[in-house]
Amino acid sequence: MSRIGRQPVPVPQNVEVEIQGTRVRVKGPKGELEYTFPAALEITFDPERRWITVKRLKEDKWHKAMHGTARAIINNMVVGVSKGFEKVLEVHGVGYSARVEGKKLVLNVGFSHPVVIEPPEGIEFAAERVSPELHRIAVRGYDKVLVGQVAANIRKVRPPEPYKGKGIRYQGEEILRKAGKAGR
């Protein structure tokens, strides 16, 4: 059996779970998520122990892979609706800035115009100025996939360049720096 797949998913008291066949709906204080899994899995919820278990019905390679994947997706759903997820990005560069206006994120990253990013439903932005050359952006939400995709879209506006390191990067991301032209 899959080491990940056989572990039960603990469900906090403030989260409601509804399972109909392979369709799982999870509702908590942060929001509500729903996902339909392949029919090759058996998903059950034990209300006394407050955990969800996933079992596979066949032993071939695809079912083994889906076993652990389904358990991880369900765990991310439960954690997301109870605690939420956050991805932090850093804007490096002199004159580069990030700020939140209403719900929108406004980036000034060297273009002739500011870049305005509208958050999808379930996502919120926070921005702070750390130093004149560094701003931090926090992307928060209850859907882990959506939080990661929105953070990737923000980073794609101005990816970090390898000579000076200016641009938008994930917090903790290291950029391999190149040497500039050698003078004579």
Strand content: 35-45%
Work out the number of β strands.
13
CATH architecture of the largest domain: Alpha-Beta Complex
Low-confidence stretches: none
Helical percent range?
10-25%
Q: Supply the CATH class of the largest domain.
A: Alpha Beta
Largest sheet: number of strands, sense, barrel closure = 4 strands, antiparallel
Q: At the third CATH level, what is the topology name of the largest domain?
A: Outer Surface Protein A, domain 3
Report the mean per-residue pLDDT as an integer.
93
Number of helical stretches of at least 4 residues = 2
> What number of structural domains do the residues give?
2
Q: State the end-to-end CA separation.
A: 64 Å
Could you give a quick summary of the protein structure above?
By secondary structure, the chain is α+β, with helices and mostly antiparallel strands. The chain contains two helices and 13 strands, in the order ββββββαββββββαβ.
